[in-house]
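Researcher: Let's try something more involved. This one mixes different molecule types, so please make sure each is placed in the same coordinate frame as the others.
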Amino acid sequence: MLNAARSGTPPPADARAAATGAGRRWVAAACIAALAALLASRGAETAAQATINGLVTGTYFALGAVGLSLVFGVLRLVNFAHGDMLTFGAYVALFLNAGSGWPIVPATLGGVLATAALAAASELAIWRPMRARRAGGFQMLLITVGLAFVIRNCIQLAAGADPLQLRLDVTSAVALPGGLRIGTVELWVVVAGLGALLAVATLLRYGRLGKEMRALADNLSLAEVAGIDTRRVILATWLFAGALAGLAGVLSSAAAGILTPNFGFQLLLSLFAATILGGIGNAYGALAGGLLLGFAEEWSALFVDARWKLAVGFVILILTLLVRPNGLLGRPALK
Amino acid sequence: MTRARHATALITSIALILGIAAGGAMMTSGVIAAPSFTMTIGDLEPYTGDLGPLGAPADKAVKLATAQLNQAAKQAGLAVTFKMVTADTRSDPQAALSAARQLIDQGATCLTGPASTPESLAILNSITKARRIPMLPSASSTRLRTVDDGHTIFRTVPPDNLQARALVLAVKQQLGGAQGKTVAIGYQNSPYGEGLANTFKQSWTAMGGRIQGPFGYDPNQPSYDTEAAKIVAGSPDAFVFADFPDTFGKVSAALLRTGKFSAAKLFVSDALAVSPIPATIPAAALNGAHAVNAGSPTGTPQAQAFNTLYLSAPGPKRSALDANNFDSGILCGLAAVAAGANTPSLIATQLPKLSGPAGSPFTYLQLAAAMRALRAGTRIHYVGVSGPIEFNAQGDTSAGTYDLSTWKNGALVLVRQINAKE
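Model: All components are placed in one shared frame. Result:
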């Protein structure tokens, strides 16, 4: 986990583990209760179809939210430019796929790599110098807002404001047992997204880089004293966050079928919601938060007017924070 | 000093005598003093954004109107010239407001456009109502009927209660009646979409029909699959959508993915009546579907002449609301001639006086004669390319001609015309 304390005496490990375990049980219980209510009131097929739809949405929410959470966990930086990094990745893939005729897989890889490079460049050109000048959190936050506008306007200048689309057939669907359906592109979005999330989770849990990131998240100064090359780890964090943002951008634009320069910014609020819902700074929490938000929005559309489904996501966020102020998998704040 | 005073008194007396004589001459001939001014028509169009496909055709129509006005003023011997300035509203209220400010700063005294209700409201509330600048939007939402506009909004585009009526008539004829027939309604959550959906629902249920929905959705949602599943559930007899191309592109892909959607059952409102089908909307979602949009009576001389004029000019092909935008431009110019000045408040005052049924009828083919009549103080009634212009107390037309078209191989083809009245 990335959100452990930076300073102070850590609480007993078993107490923190117990808190996290309670969070997981709380999530599971809430999901089971919601599913039971769905099944009872709307029938198995409708409930299952809404769950599949929620899985699609939740996958790219989770991908976007994990990147956002990684940056916050390691750097304590709320990155408002993250949504526009999604847009950047999607537009690079679009340029390669629809503009230059590349197949979708290499075009997606191109988008991912380009966004990782953009994120790394922002670290080298903006964030590292700003940290060296001991810029405060508020200044850094304002810079992220400014960077968001710069990225969006550059995209608009280069590609125009009109909606564009990848060369994909977004109308075909795969029939599943029980009369259920999932769009062919959406199926690939889920497979690719969940695969990437699994790889990231494994790396964070068992990889050396993941351990170093956790060490930085716990206490940057201590990690430095312990001999960790913090500059390298921070750069790697940006590379990872950028790559995940790029992948989330390509996958979400592929699933939606249409891409505009504002699309990442429109997703940003949901990504923040997923990050906070899971426990800010906690990459696994962001993953859970993203998926849960996707399910909640689609399930809610069966009960309330679909116009309010974005608002429903935020109501769930508020309710969750009332019960668990640190988010679903967040640990209690240290005193 | 005394000599100077005498000189001043002499000059003043001569000027007064000349003035009285000139006034007398004008009174005897019945012609009001010929004004001399350049009028600027401000054209607010969505060249980009959701309504992007409507921008260029509307712009071309207002340009043609400006050229007709200049030609007629010359023929009528008036020292009045017309120019047009244009700006992109980007289908966005904030951008529309900025575009309107830009045009007004360039001297625009009468605005044609914008194309949507949120844009119109932003401009009305921030600028035009306070400064009494007339605006002739091509937005059709009923929301603009209820807003306090200080008598500055006039529409040549029939309001959506008439469009909903035309949609009802189109669906009813297709289904062979409304009694017991179920129509699923989907709409974008906007004043335009909600207004149309609710008005359609009222009219359809009043005829004994059943409604599934209406299902509203936000244009910024990441996914529309659950909404699509709800819309197609139970296989309704027809689908009616009030939406804009960008959002409908995403919604229609979700509808097709359900495997239960048929374009042959689909009827859409004017904002989606775009031809050819944009690349962002799956062709399978619209080929075979029907669209209703404000049209113009095809049989009248002015409609035929406008068709020739429009098609012979370079630029885009005919599109929804081009005739209405042309009429808006002509009305702006005629109102300025009637006012005898390039003053927004005077133009706004004159606009309702150009509508029927009172006054002698003139079409754009008799613009020079209409201008001469106006300068002679005669009340005229402008008969538009889009049909008779008869403004009610809200500045709306009370009847409308609608084209019912269908998409064949990606292009809209006229099926028939529907006349809708309040």
